[in-house]
Amino acid sequence: MRGLLARWEYRSDAASRDAAASLLLRERILAARGLADPGTLAAYLDPKLTHLHDPSLIPDLDRAAERILRACHDGEQIVIYGDYDVDGVTGTAILWHMVRAISPQANIRTYVPHRLEEGYGLNESAVRELAGDGAKLLVSVDCGITALVPVQIASSLGLAVIITDHHNPPTRLDDLPGAFAVVHPRRPDSQYPFKDLSGAGVAYKLAWRLATMHAGGRHTSPELRGLLVDLLAFASLGTIADVVPLHGENRVLARHGLVRCRHSRFVGLNALVEASGLAGEDIDAMAVGFRLGPRLNAAGRMGHAREANELFTTTDADRAKLIAAQLSKQNRERQEAEQRILDQADEMAGRMGMTGAGGGRAIVLAHPEWHAGIVGIVCSRLVERHHRPVILLSLRDGVAHGSGRSIEGFNLHAGLATCAEHLEKFGGHNMAAGLRLAEPKLGAFTRSFLDHAAVEVKPEQMCRRVTIDCDATLGELTFESVRGLAGFQPCGAGNAEPVLRLRGAVIADRPIPLGTTGKHIAVQVRAAGEDRRIRLVGWGYAAHREKFVPGVELDVLVRPRVSWWQGSGRVEGEIVDVSV
C-alpha cells in the first residue's frame, strides 16, 4: 500500500489481523507485535528491576570493579574519561557518583575530549597529559573499544586503563585493546544475555557491581541501593538519547529511570529539567529526545562537553542553574546553525545528483563552513528526507571531520571499514558513525563509499516505510482505550509508538494552521454517518492541506494520544500519513 509520503505495511499478516479483529484495541496491537506469550507480555507491560541481568556476566566487569575499589583504597588518581554526547556524559555521572558515595575522599576527576580539537574517543595527547598530571587509573565511558595505540601509550606511562564501551567491537579477541579490563557486552567471548546496552547502561552495570563488591557480596547497603535507584535517571537519558533499542534491559532502565527524572537528588538534573520547561511535568522519551538530550549535546557540539559533565556532578544549585541556562542558549544557536547547514547540504546534494528517484544510493558532502559538531544532526535530517545513507564532513586545516547516519539494512560502520585505506580514524555502529580523513583523500573516499553503497543499498530500502499495528475505528479511540496504550511507553528505537489505520475518516472541516511558522495543521475528522469528531494534528502537513477537503474520505495513519489542557484530557491523533 502506498500513502502520500510513505509505503504502508502491516506489522502482522492479514490472517492474523482478521483473527484478532474481535480483540480490544490494546490486545490487537500486542498480538500484532507478537506479544501474546504471558511471560513475554508481562515483562513488556511491567518491566521490573528484577528483570535486569547480573552485571558480573559481562566480561571483565568484576575485574574492573575490583581495580576501581583498589584505586579508591590506595588513594590513586582516577580519571573517568567519557564521550562528549549524552550517553557518555550520563555514564560518566553514574560512575562518578557511585565512586564518590563509596569513597567520599576518592581522588577522582572527569575528562571529556573536545569534539573538534581532539575528536572522538581516547587520544594520545590526552593520555600523556593525564599520566603527566598523576593519573594512575583511567576508566573510559562510551568509547575506547578500538583505542589500541592510546592504551599502549597509557601502559608505557604507568597508567592503567579500563575500557567500558558498547560500540562495535573487533571480531577477534586478539584485536581488543590491551587494557587492564575491557568491559563490553558484545565482546567476541561475551555470553551476556543482552547485547544492546548503551554506554550509560554499561556504566550503570559497573556502578551496580561496585556497590555490591564494596559490601562484600551480592547485595549492598540501603544507602548505595538508594543511589543506584536514583542513578537510573541518568541511565534512562543515555539509553534513550543514544537511540539503542528499547527492549529488554534497555526498556527496564528507561521506564524506571524516566520516573526519577522528574524529582531527582541531583541538582544538575533538576536544573536541566527546569531550563527545558519540563518542571512539574511527566518526562517521557519524547522529552528526552527533543528537549533534554539536545541541550546536553549542545555543550559538546557548540562548546565543550565538560560543562555538561559539571552539570551532573556539581552539588551547587546556583552553579547548576547557570550551566543549564548556558546549555539552553547553546542549543538555540545549534538549531540556527543546523538549519543553515541543512538548507545548503540539501541544495548541494540535489545539484550533484545525489537525491531524487534517479539519484545515487548515498550522499557524501563536505564544506569548509560547516560546523563539525552539528553535521551529525543534519545527516539525520537528510536521511529522513531522502532515505539513503548520508555522510557530511567539515573541512578545516586540511582535515575532513564529520559524521554519518544510515538507513535500516545498511551497516554504516561496515561500509566505512571497506574504505578504511582512505581514513585516518572512524568508529561507531550500524546506524551512526564518526570519521576523520585528510582532505586530499576526500575524493577517493567519496568514490569508494558511493561505489559500496551502490551495491549494498537496494532500491526498496530508499523509501520511507510506515509499519501499521492494526486498523481501528474512530469509535474505538475513547479516552480509556487510548490511556490504556500507556503501557507501550517508553517508545523509541525498536519499540515504535502504536500506529493505527483509520479507514474512511471523513474530513469534517477545513484544516486550521498551527504554530508560528504555519507549517503545521489541525483538522477535525469523523466516521461516516456519525457526529463524533476527533482532532488530528499534522506536523509539517501545511504543504499538503489540499488533501483535507471537507466531506472527503481518507485513510489516515495516526498515533493516538491523550492531550491535556488545564487538567482536562481529550483524545487526538498525530497524523503519520494519509492515502493518496
Provide key terms for this protein.
580 residues; alpha/beta; OB fold (Dihydrolipoamide Acetyltransferase, E2P); inorganic pyrophosphatase (n-terminal core); Diaminopimelate Epimerase, Chain A, domain 1; 3 domains; five-stranded mixed beta sheet; 18 helices
Could you describe the 3D structure shown?
This protein has three domains: 7-33 and 469-578, OB fold (Dihydrolipoamide Acetyltransferase, E2P) (Beta Barrel), CATH 2.40.50.140; 49-219, inorganic pyrophosphatase (n-terminal core) (Alpha-Beta Complex); 352-461, Diaminopimelate Epimerase, Chain A, domain 1 (Roll), CATH 3.10.310. A five-stranded parallel β-sheet has the order 3-2-4-5-6, with helices on both faces. It has a five-stranded mixed β-sheet with strand order 7-8-9-11-10, with helices on both faces. It has helices at 14-19, 25-32, 38-45, 61-74, 86-102, 124-132, 148-156, 199-215, 222-241, 248-259, 267-275, 285-302, 306-313, 317-351, 375-386, 412-418, 442-456, 479-483; strands spanning 7-10, 77-82, 108-111, 135-141, 160-164, 181-183, 363-367, 390-396, 399-405, 425-428, 432-438, 465-468, 470-472, 500-507, 512-514, 520-527, 533-538, 553-565, 568-578. It is of the alpha/beta class.
What is the number of E strands?
19
User: Count of DSSP helices?
Assistant: 18
What structural class do helix, strand and pairing data support? alpha/beta
Number of domains: 3
Give me the CATH architecture of the largest domain, please.
Answer: Alpha-Beta Complex
Radius of gyration: 25 Å
Strand residue percentage = 15-25%
Give the strand order of the largest sheet, numbering strands 1, 2, ... along the chain. 3-2-4-5-6
Shape: globular
The CATH class assignment of the largest domain is Alpha Beta
CATH topology of the largest domain: inorganic pyrophosphatase (n-terminal core)
Main sheet, how many strands, which sense, barrel? Answer: 5 strands, parallel
N-to-C terminal Cα separation, in Å? Answer: 10 Å
Which regions have little confidence, pLDDT < 50, spanning 5+ residues? none
Mean pLDDT: 93
Fraction of residues in H or I helices? 25-40%
